[in-house]
Amino acid sequence: MRKERIGKWLVFAIAFATVCSSARENPSAGTAAELRLRILSSQPGKVRSVPAVIWLEPSQGTAALAFTPRGRYTLLQKNRTFTPHLQVIPVGSVVQFPNADPFFHNVFSLFDGKRFDLGLYEAGSSKSVTFSREGVSYIFCNIHPEMSAVIVTLSTPLYAIADASDSFDLREIPAGDYKLHFWMEGVPQSVLNGLDRPVHLPARAVDLGEIRVPMAPLPAHKNKFGEAYPPATQPPY
To answer: Which CATH architecture has domain 33-213?
Structure first.
C-alpha cells in the first residue's frame, strides 16, 4: 500500500513538473487572445472584397511585441503591374523595386507613409527604399497610371489582412488593452480614423461581429507633379 501511494505521488510530481516546464518555455500559454471581425459595405445588399488591414496598438500597461525587419521585401514591376498589390512591413524595412518589364518605370509615392521618387530606371535594374516610420504609402508609376500598390508600415506584429470574404482572424495576441486601427482601400482617411476603437482582449476568442464601412470607387490619382496623366492610348514605355 505504501509503495502504491508513493508511486501515485511520483506520477503526479512528474506530471506537475512537465506542466511547469512547458509554462516556462511558453510563458504566453493560456494567456493568448484571438480577435475576429468582418467588414461590410454600408450600402445595403452590396458586398465587395477590398484590400484591408487591421492592427492593434498596445495601450498603456500592455506590453508591446517586437516587430523587426527580416531580410528585404520586394515590390515587383512586371506586365505594368506591382506584385504584390498590398504589403505589410515592419518599420525600418528595405523594399526592393525590381523592373522586370522590357521598358522604363518611374516608381513614386507622395503620401505620409514614405515620400520618394525613384526616377526613370530601365529594364532589368532595381532600386530600393527604406521605410523608416509608420504609415500607409500609396505607390504609383509616373509613366503607367494603371499601376498601383500599397505598403502599410507598422511597429507591431499584431495585424491581419482581410481574406476573400472581408474577414479578419488575428490570433496569438497577448491578453490586454489595445487600440484597434483600420486601413481599407477606397475609404477616406477621415472615415478610417473614426473606426478606431479601444478593445479589451481577455485570454479567449473575441468576435466583434460585422462593421459597416462606407466604400467608394477610388478617384483617379495624379502623377508625381500633381497633375492628371496625359490621355494616351499607347504609353511611351
So the answer is: Sandwich (2.60)
